[in-house]
Design goal:
Elements: H1 22-38, H2 42-47, E1 58-59, E2 62-63, H3 65-74, H4 81-94, H5 99-108, H6 114-123, H7 129-143, H8 152-156, H9 171-181, H10 192-195, H11 197-204, H12 209-221, H13 226-245, H14 257-268, H15 273-290, H16 305-321, H17 332-342, H18 348-360, H19 367-371, E3 378-380, E4 388-391, E5 404-406, H20 410-425, E6 431-432, E7 439-440, E8 445-447, E9 451-452, H21 455-466, H22 471-479, H23 489-504, H24 507-514, H25 519-524, H26 529-544, E10 548-549, H27 551-560, H28 569-574, H29 580-587, E11 589-591, E12 594-596, E13 614-617, H30 621-641, H31 650-667, H32 673-684
Antiparallel strand pairs: 1-2, 3-4, 4-5, 6-7, 8-9, 10-13, 11-12, 12-13
Length: 704
């Protein structure tokens, strides 16, 4: 190679040409002639600005890519930053893909050996191997170096972007592969481009460069986490975008009440209330931080408190009317787990992802809790050796450390045991968790090179491999004008909370399994439409068991389907473990033959039987029979003593209707009409009505 010589190489002097057929040699001779005609020397081609370059030089439908790259490699031009940029810019502009050519060149010039290619395949043993290897071939061509000679500094160069495949490779994935091959001692590498996001913001808005940089330093000095700093940068970027768009009428130097309202209105057109709230507050904090410190900032701030009140009201309304991240399709949680369980993983990574979702579907914990589990996480629950749960030293969102969460399905337990067995059989070792900085044996350790499986892998697996198999999701989109919804760990958490509440009727039990410190938070988990329906079924179940009669129970069901239930005391009551007797005493008024649940005084005594606020229990059967006997006697007297009796007589009609309603309420309690009238006959004779039950097919509940 004649290094750093920018002259074109004649075909007979190009090393790689020796392997070309005569036809190919003629074609590339034509390419070279056309290149020389447009650019007499290679130096001219390199120095011609990309926007002035002729679009791809061709000859007989053959383009110049193979010649240009071979020429650059043999001349050593790829090792010169200026020349390298010119060549990569050319390919970024005019070519969709040159992966095949880079593979050919990397192998011919022995940038990547057969042994290295085999080792790389083992690191990514799946259908994406071709794309994975392609990144390493392009990486070596980028620098004109052997893979073993690529340095940590090289990997950080911006020109590496050209070689990355966004689906399967990144700088850190390349770095981990180099670590596995023994070419570096650093497993992870910090990408300065990603690290300094605020740098791009400072460049985009040079007028605010100084406060942007100072604000970044302020947050770092204040101990803000990286995630928080990134969020603050995002909200600041939106604020600066707003100022830029409204620059004709709004300047930061006079940003006061009217301008805050204008910013709110601008955000409100684009984002949900929670997003808007965060942006307005962050804008206020940024301005307060820079008051009197920078010439473009206002001297004082006049923030409209009414704006905060409005946003908070809107935010509260959004939260109350929102179903959160609960699944809007009944039975969706079970369907997803069914498909996960039936799925046959193609790779070890897919097997890890599959087990992750099987655990999530069995235990009401958050995504990060499962992701950060240690191998020894399966423990008997307190006071129960037979009931297993998950525990972790990882501090979850609610601040729980070493807390236990019950596993409700053997599928999840099997998945954990499978992962534990894998860890020990593969001889994996403890690593430092990048999130909590603790060193321990990780359940979802991919391998000791790649470390903890990234969160994106789990989400991509669910999205690409499992959800397309669930036809109910597509049906939901069709029936709801293409509407989409979030499907993740929180949806399973809502589902399990609903099941626990329906089974136990005890909000404290639900609160315990969710790990909430506040009962009200657990209540919010049960307010989605699907949760309402599930809990409604448990109410109906009690009605169908004929434990209670009266239209009030039907009224509960009607109210349950009404969105106003969130403002009703009934929701809180039925989420508690309050028994019916206590409930009636607290919220009802005892009548001679049942309970009135109306919150207002009512004197229409005989209409109770058809009233929506009336409850009759088994305990009140004797009272009802006594009333029915009295009404029967009065009606008989009416018939016997009337000269022109008709059923249309208002008094007679009312009597007949009342008796019919009482019979209906009693049949709700599993009494046949024959049995009811036998009891009435016994009551009229002054006998014990229980004699009607001598056949033993029914027994009256005892009165309190």
């Amino acid at each position: 190679m004649n290094l750093m010589n920018t002259e074109w190489i004649e075909l007979e002097n190009m090393i790689i040409v020796s392997q070309y057929s005569e036809t190919w040699k003629k074609n590339y001779s034509g390419i070279l002639r056309n290149l020389k005609a447009e650019y007499p020397t290679g130096d001219i081609w390199l120095k011609t600005p990309i926007e002035e370059k002729e679009h791809i030089i061709t000859y007989r439908n053959i383009n110049d890519s193979r010649y240009i790259l071979s020429w650059a490699i043999e001349r050593g031009l790829m090792q010169n930053p200026e020349y390298r940029k010119a060549i990569i810019d050319y390919y970024n502009k005019f070519y969709n893909a040159v992966g095949g050519i880079c593979k050919e060149l990397a192998k011919y010039y022995e940038f990547v050996t057969e042994e290295e290619a085999k080792a790389l395949k083992k690191l990514r043993n799946n259908s994406q191997i071709v794309h994975f290897l392609s990144s390493f071939y392009k990486l070596c061509v980028t620098f004109g170096k052997k893979l073993k000679d690529i340095t940590d500094k090289d990997v950080l160069e911006s020109c590496v972007d050209w070689s990355l495949n966004s689906v399967v490779t990144s700088r850190n994935i390349i770095q981990k592969a180099r670590f596995a091959l023994g070419y570096t001692t650093k497993k992870l590498i910090v990408n300065k481009k990603n690290k300094d996001k605020f740098e791009r913001m400072a460049t985009e808005y040079p007028h605010f460069e100084t406060p942007i940089r100072d604000y970044h330093k302020y947050m770092k000095a204040g101990g803000y986490s990286k995630a928080t700093i990134d969020k603050k940068h995002a909200t600041l970027l939106h604020f600066l975008t707003f100022l830029n768009e409204q620059s004709d009428t709004i300047q930061l130097s006079n940003f006061q009440r009217k301008e805050f309202w204008a910013y709110y209105n601008w955000l409100d057109l684009q984002y949900v209330p929670s997003y808007t709230y965060a942006h307005v507050i962050d804008a206020r904090l940024f301005i307060e931080w820079g008051l009197n410190e920078y010439p473009d900032f206002p001297k004082t701030i006049d923030y409209p408190e009414g704006l905060s009140s409005k946003i908070i009201r809107t935010l509260v309304a959004e939260e109350e009317n929102s179903e959160g991240r609960a699944f809007p399709i009944e039975g969706l949680a079970q369907r997803i787990i069914e498909e996960c369980y039936a799925y046959v993983p193609e790779t070890e990574r897919e097997a890890l992802c599959r087990d992750f979702w099987l655990i999530v579907g069995s235990c009401p914990v958050r995504f990060s809790f499962v992701h950060n589990l240690e191998v020894d996480c399966l423990k008997p629950m307190l006071n129960s050796d037979s009931f297993l749960g998950l525990t972790s030293t990882y501090r979850d969102k609610a601040g729980n450390v070493n807390a236990q969460f019950p596993l409700f399905d053997d599928i999840g337990i099997e998945a954990i045991k499978r992962l534990q067995k894998r860890f020990h059989e593969k001889g994996l070792k403890a690593i430092t968790n990048p999130n909590n900085k603790l060193m321990y044996d990780h359940l979802f350790l991919e391998n000791n090179v790649n470390g903890l499986l990234p969160t994106t892998a789990f989400r991509v697996f669910l999205k690409d491999r499992i959800l397309p198999r669930v036809k109910e999701i597509e049906e939901y989109k069709i029936n709801n004008n293409g509407a989409v919804f979030e499907i993740g760990a929180h949806g399973f958490r809502h589902f399990i909370a609903t099941v626990v509440q329906a089974k136990t009727r005890n909000i404290r039990a639900t609160q315990f399994v969710l790990g909430h410190h506040d009962e009200k938070m657990s209540m919010r988990y049960l307010r989605s439409k699907i949760s309402r329906n599930t809990l409604l079924y448990s109410i109906i179940d009690g009605y169908e068991k004929q434990e209670v009669s009266g239209k009030f129970y039907l009224n509960i069901i009607e109210m349950w389907n009404d969105e106003s239930i969130e403002d009703s005391r009934l929701f809180d009551i039925f989420m508690s473990d309050m028994d019916l007797t206590t409930f009636l005493k607290h919220y009802g008024r005892k009548r001679d033959m049942g309970w009135c649940m109306s919150e207002e005084n009512c004197e229409t005594y005989y209409r109770c039987w058809g009233c929506n606020f009336f409850v009759l229990r088994r305990e009140e059967i004797e009272e009802a029979i006594e009333l029915l006997a009295t009404l029967f006697r009065e009606h008989r007297n009416l018939v016997q003593n009337s000269k022109d009796y008709t059923d249309n007589n208002p008094i007679a009609a009312s009597s007949i209707k009342t008796q019919a309603l009482i019979q209906k309420r009693l049949t709700d309690l599993r009494l046949s009409q024959e049995m009811i009238w036998e009891m009435v006959r016994l009551k009229l004779l002054g006998k014990d009505i229980k004699e009607a039950l001598s056949n033993g097919d029914f027994s009256l509940a005892s009165k309190e």
